[in-house]
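User: Please predict structures.

Assistant: First:
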Amino acid sequence: MRFIYECCDCHQVYETDEVFYQCPSCAQKNDGTAFPLGNVIVKLNEEDLAKLKEQEHVSMYDFFPYQVPHKDVYPVGGTPIARPKRLAEKYGLKNIFCKLDSALPSGSFKDRASQLIAAQAIAHKQNRIALASTGNAGAAMSCAGAAYGLEIILFVPATAPVNKLMQSVLYGATVVPVKGSYDDAFALSIAYTKQFGGINRNTAYNPMTIEGKKSISIELFEQLGRKVPDVVYVSVGDGCIYAGVYKGFYDLKMAGLIDKVPHIVCAQSKQSNAISRAWKTGDFSNLAKATTRADSISVESPANGRMAVRYIHESEGWATEVDDSEILEAQLELAKEAGIFVEPAAACAWAALKADHTMLRERFGSDVDVCVLFTGSGFKDMAVFTGKVSIPEAIENSKEAVIKRFER
């Protein structure tokens, strides 16, 4: 599909067939004291979008700026929707839908962006992709690299969960642990591509990451019978997933397939709440150290914070903050009462819904359609349960031991 780029901040339009990352005039103003400037939005051709209304069904690939080759090599999409009946009854909300992106090839939502970045690299005849990640984006890009035969250079904070790093190593990526934060790894990966070339996949820095992530909204539209939920909950760190979710619904609206973008809720940990604070105050310079245990949403200077705040307003959404303790409680509740096992960052979205459930009933009624996006598998970070979950001691190999264990 034909497209152009538009700066999120100054609205300058750029038309180019080359790989394009940021608005140069806005990006040069960045000094590290506020949310980054200069991220660009991919604007799809309106005539091309209008043609999609004539189709009986649409695919996420109909809305992509690049053609994805050999989709079955790295199959992305088609993830299931669960309806957690017990939890819906518990919180008095009849229509809760849980989108399980932990079923994607590498176990997280980040496969959606990585598939499109791989397509971008192939289209531009580039064989090397560099990025920074706390784990999930790196694992997803490494998975795509293994499938498509691309070289992946991955910069990670040395504190990233071992399970996620091991996944990337097993996929064959070159992993570079950094003695610093995610933001430090982000800067170093950009320095790498400027020096050695290749495609940079950094979240939001490469606008195609947002385009890839929008696929979940288009998929939801078809799965729910060509309609969209009233409210969508998504866990947020740097703001790229939020922007992608919004962009998918926006493109559906521009194609004339829906009338309104859903209310999209920005779920954040109180220990990493930069976007929530900016939405409430309008201050993009109030940065604070992120200390949340939910590593996938632990960000101090959100790479796509300005765009996310803009889209919170445009979707008539809001931000809900929860404690890390509430996130762990939500993670355990989902596992025990819905059979849904997600990592802490993904559980943040459920914790936010729990915090909001009374308000949702009062504002929208108990019949409101609410979708919660679960973005990563619980197997990504098992260390979070250390000291909180224990395995029972073994019993003797005898019938008497069984009786003793269970008699009341």
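Second:
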Amino acid sequence: MKARPPLKFLLARLLGKVLILLLYRMRIKGRNHCPRKGAALLVANHVSYADPLLVAVASPRIVHFLMSRTYYDIPVAHWFFKAMGAIPVSGRDSPKAVIRSLEACRKVLEEGKVLCIFAEGTVSRHGQMNSFKKGFERVVQGLDVPVVPVHLDRLWGSLFSFEGGGVLFKWPRRLPYPVTVAFGPSLPSSATAHQVRQAIQELGSESFRLRLAERETLALEYIRMAKKHPWRLALADSSGRSLSFGSALAAAAGLAKALDHEIDAGRNAGVMLPASVGGGLAVLALTLAGRAPVMLGLALSKQAAAERCAKAGVTTVLTSRKVTDRLGWRPDRPVFIEDLPLPGRWASLGSWLRLLVMSPERLAQVWAPRASRDLEDVAAILFTSGSTGVPKGAMLSHANILSNVEAISQVYATLATDRVLGVLTLHHALGFTATLWLPLLLGLGAVYHHDPADVSAVAALAERFRPTILAATPVMLAAYLRRVEARAFGSLRLVVAGADKLREELAAAWLDKFGVLPLEGYGTTELSPVAAVNIPDVVGSRRRQKGGKVGTIGRPLPGVTIKTVCPETWESTPEGVPGLLLVKGPNVMKGYVGDPASTSECMRHGWYVTGDVAVIDDDGFVAITDRLARFTRIDGEMVPHRALETRLQDLSGAAGPAFLVSSVPDGEEGERLVVLYKNDCDIESLRSRLSEEGFPRPWIPEARRFHRVAELPIAASGKVDLAALKAMAAEAERRPGG
């Protein structure tokens, strides 16, 4: 006969269940993956101190927990944890004590019971998943026990989480607080910490989609924010123009109405405007009108712009005369934003009265009757840079952009007092999401200057508005480091670098001068755009939790899963082994507009194939090693171009990028390496030093494969134009002596 649990255990479990049901509104997914009988090890992420109770209530079985001895020994709670059958352990325990705790865990499993371990070993203090300890591998070693991944979502911000820096002493956002507990398919007992962490991340991607089901589309979310904070600064720029959230909504609604007469029914519209109040209003107006803005660059030729418009089915382009005069051409069917009628005094007064007295739902009916109500509708079309070929138009849905905004705000802990300094163009994916939609949806102010290279104007704007957040490319950061006074950027608390690799010395120099360390992130247009970020470390009462690691792109955002695979077999690579980088999550685009073939090429079973080669370390940090296209197979080995470039750069002592490596077909070897360089240097000396440092001989190109060029194909953002590089290398090799 099966023994019944002790009465004190049942009472403790009942008390815990009552507490959870009072404080939380639980959604349980995949409960069937938890075995109904027999031993099982549950491995979960750790977001709050309520996690054990949540898992206990969500599980169909009685669960025993491995927990921190620090909390187990708290006098007022010790009886409860002991009654629940918790097993205490501490990092300060002696090796023998740790072994005893692990043996106690193993005994639970040997008795056919269910054990739960929070493999991070501590509650997250920064909202991201920490590295996984490998103790659970030892617990199940030699046992035939299923390992069930468990993901807890939406707890960041709850009473028992560290959001805001503390636990308990904060006002709850909602009661009961929504939470999702997801159980995944079991893994074998031989699963590594890396594999289990990966499985929990994938559960997190699915759980994040459930968050979005409670959200509204961009237009409706903005209307709610404008209703909540009508007087707060929303948009400003260096021209002196500024608008509050309420004024921006009223202006965008009027603009949307005027555009109905300019744009064909059912069509989207191109936007060719700088980062400015006008550019932001144009995007917002089109969104209120239920049209997806097709973002066009400000340095395009007329033919290139026409090709993008044709692909996206666009016939009308919103722009300004200043933009077209600078370009020297006009779209075939332009709508100049300065020509559109502005509301008069009485109309503006009426708009404000509506804003103040109407509900958000009624405002949406009046000002955005045709705005999309479906999160999966296309919200914007942004074109890729074309650095690897022909630019493609990534269709981003409302859900894509919302998920990115929510995840970014979670890990960077944005504040109501934050202001964003917008120097990236709006057709740049990071500029579009992080400097436009993120502040609009979170109630932050955004201040813009149309030319990031105009350093003095950017500095003046920063001194005037005191922004706290800056997103920029490493090239921009280098320019600001040289030419901006420290006081101008004294208000910045968060600086994020993207689009190219952030050099350690640049980050260190920024910290020394401005007192803020730039943090490298990673993304692509297809990912809306952010996939992974470094965040500031958090110092707890006993230890520091790492949020960033030098030389990496950080960890995946909440809801985003990253893995590396062998490009030939598509099997996952172990931690520490480079592989092709794949990304899954609610931020992955719907596809390329008018290009199903390219969409199929880059999507594989829900994973976006980035084309980058990366390595994931045992802490979960990701480091990009190169593009897959930037490897050359020589003598059966893949030679990384970036490794050769970096070493040549270091050996030459050049201040800026001076070397790029490519490859061309070779009749005998299949491929051969080619080096383009732009400064005077002693090629033979460089080759000798590479050899002395142990570079394999096939990795060192012959001297005649080094070609001097006037300029390297590197964009202002710092990104290498790989298509142009390939063409230049081929042309150099065709020249006499090549």
